[in-house]
Design a protein that fits this description.
By secondary structure, the chain is mainly beta. The protein is 2% helix and 43% strand. The chain is built from one helix and 34 strands. The model is unreliable at 1-20, 24-33, 186-190 and 415-433 (pLDDT under 50).
Length: 433
C-alpha cells in the first residue's frame, strides 16, 4: 500500500474542507464561457490498493468473523446496495481527491476524481439505481481561496458512469439526504447559509430556503420540508404531496392542534422512518416515529432520540436510542410499532444490523446483541463493524499507518454465538413492549 503523504497538504485540507466548497458571497453569478466544473470518472485507480490476504488478529474483529480483504481510506466509507464507496486524499503521486467504488468481493470498479477541497460525498437511490453524489468546486486548496462555484454530479454506483450533472449547488452536502447549503466561513462557526433540496431523479431543485422553504430531510426521492407554514412530504421527482402535518395522527399526550417539527439533528430520522417532535399538552415534548412515504404513525417513542439510528431494510427494523426520566433505552421499531425496548448504557450505541445480529459499542468494547429481543450475546475488546454492504461483507475499521484501515469480514449467524456475555445491562430486565 502506498501511504506516502504530503502532511502539509493534509493539514490545509482539514482546515478548508468545511469552507472551501462554499460560495464566496462577494462573487457574481456564473458567466458565459466559464469553465465547466464537475467531478470526473478516471481511467485508472490512482493510489488505491486492496490487500487480498489481510493479517488480522482474531481478537480485533467480532467473534466468528473472517477477514476477507482490506483497503485504506481517509474517512468512513459509505455503502450502496452492492458497493463500498470510500475516499482517498491526494498524495505526492496524485493531486486530485479520489472517490472509489469496490464490490463485495474486494474488486475496485471505478474511481472518480475531484477538487481536494470537496471531501464530502453522499449516496442515494432512484428507480432502483444507486448513485454516488460527488461535489467539485473552483476552490484552491493551496492558497485557501473559497469557491465561487460548487457543483454536484451523480454517478452510477455500479459502473461510475454519469447519471446527471454537474449542477450548481450553494455549497457542500448538509443532509440528511440531498440537501446542500453554504458552509460556515470558519471551521468553528455554527451558522450555515440557505439550503436547497435536490431531486435524485435529475438533480433539479425542489425546495429552496431562499424562496421561503425550510428543508428538513430527504431520502431516496422523498423530501420533508416546510412550505407556507405547513410541514409536508413530497415525492421529489414529481413534487406530488404525499402528506402534510394536517394528515398526521398525533401521538397520545400531544397538544391538540399542535404542529410537529422533524427531528434530524441527531440523525434520529433514518431511511424510511422520520421522527417528529410534538408539543405536549403538559408542556413537555413528545416524540413519535412515522412512515416517511405515508406519514402513518408507527409508534410513540419512550423519550427523546439521542443518537444515530440504524435501519435494516431486510428485517424492516429501525434501532434508535432514546433518553427520558426513566433512563436511556435502545428501541427496536418495526412497521407495526415498537417490538422491544431495553435499558442501554449512556456510552453505548449501535452501528450495524447484520441478519439477526446487532453490532455496536459500549465504551471501548464491542458488543453483539440479538435483533429478535435485544439480548446481549457478546462483549469484548474487538472492533464492531462500522457499516455493511447489503449484498456483501461487513466492514471493520482497524488502526492504520496514516490512512484508516477497513477490513471486510464475513459475520456469523446468532446461533453460532454461544456462551456470550450478558454484561451489557445484565442487571436490568428486558422490557418487552
Amino acid at each position: 500500500m502506498n501511504t506516502t503523504r504530503s502532511l502539509a497538504l493534509a493539514a490545509v485540507m482539514c482546515a478548508v474542507v468545511v469552507s472551501a466548497c462554499s460560495h464566496d458571497e462577494d462573487t457574481g453569478e456564473k458567466t458565459a464561457g466559464q469553465e465547466t466544473i464537475g467531478a470526473q470518472l478516471s481511467d485508472d485507480l490512482g493510489q488505491l490498493e486492496v490487500d487480498r490476504a489481510p493479517s488480522v488478529a482474531a481478537d480485533d474483529v467480532p467473534p466468528g468473523a473472517e477477514a476477507l480483504w482490506s483497503v485504506e481510506f481517509d474517512s468512513s466509507p459509505h455503502v450502496t446496495q452492492e458497493r463500498l464507496v470510500g475516499l482517498v486524499y491526494p498524495d505526492a503521486s496524485e493531486p486530485e481527491l479520489s472517490i472509489v467504488g469496490i464490490d463485495g468481493a474486494g474488486k475496485p470498479r471505478w474511481r472518480i476524481t475531484t477538487n481536494p477541497s470537496c471531501a464530502g460525498f453522499g449516496v442515494t437511490r432512484h428507480d432502483d439505481r444507486d448513485m454516488v453524489i460527488v461535489l467539485d468546486s473552483d476552490a484552491d486548496v493551496e492558497s485557501g481561496e473559497l469557491a465561487t462555484r460548487t457543483t454536484a454530479t451523480a454517478f452510477d454506483a455500479h459502473d461510475g458512469s454519469v447519471v446527471w450533472g454537474p449542477v450548481d449547488v450553494p455549497g457542500p452536502l448538509r443532509g440528511p439526504g440531498l440537501i446542500f447549503g453554504e458552509a460556515p466561513g470558519s471551521i468553528v462557526a455554527d451558522e450555515t447559509g440557505p439550503r436547497v433540496m435536490l431531486t435524485a431523479a435529475d438533480g433539479s431543485v425542489v425546495a429552496d430556503e431562499t424562496a421561503g422553504d425550510i428543508v428538513y430531510y430527504e431520502h431516496h426521492g422523498v423530501g420533508v420540508l416546510e412550505r407556507d407554514g405547513l410541514v409536508q412530504a413530497r415525492h421529489t421527482a414529481t413534487e406530488k404531496v404525499l402528506w402534510t402535518e394536517n394528515d398526521l395522527a398525533a401521538p397520545p399526550g400531544s397538544e391538540p392542534g399542535g404542529s410537529p417539527t422533524p427531528v434530524t439533528q441527531t440523525t434520529a430520522s433514518v431511511a424510511d422512518t422520520i421522527v417528529l417532535a410534538w408539543p405536549g399538552s403538559s408542556g413537555d415534548t413528545i416524540y413519535s416515529a412515522h412512515d416517511l412515504g405515508t406519514g402513518a404513525l408507527v409508534d410513540q417513542l419512550p423519550g427523546e432520540p439521542d443518537g444515530a439510528s440504524v435501519a435494516d431494510p431486510t428485517s424492516s427494523i429501525t434501532l434508535m436510542t432514546t433518553t427520558s426520566s426513566a433512563g436511556r433505552q435502545l428501541v427496536a421499531l418495526g412497521p407495526a410499532g415498537i417490538r422491544w425496548a431495553k435499558p442501554f448504557p449512556d456510552d453505548a450505541g449501535v452501528d450495524v444490523i447484520a441478519g439477526n445480529l446487532v453490532y455496536g459499542r459500549a465504551g471501548t468494547s464491542g458488543v453483539t446483541l440479538d435483533l429478535v429481543d435485544g439480548a446481549s450475546l457478546d462483549e469484548g475488546g474487538w472492533a464492531p463493524p462500522t457499516t455493511r454492504v447489503p449484498t456483501g461483507p461487513a466492514v471493520v475499521q482497524l488502526p492504520g499507518d496514516e490512512r484508516q484501515r477497513y477490513v471486510a469480514v464475513s459475520l456469523p449467524d446468532a446461533d453460532r454465538l454461544s456462551g456470550g456475555s450478558d454484561s451489557l445491562g445484565a442487571d436490568l430486565d428486558l422490557d418487552m413492549l
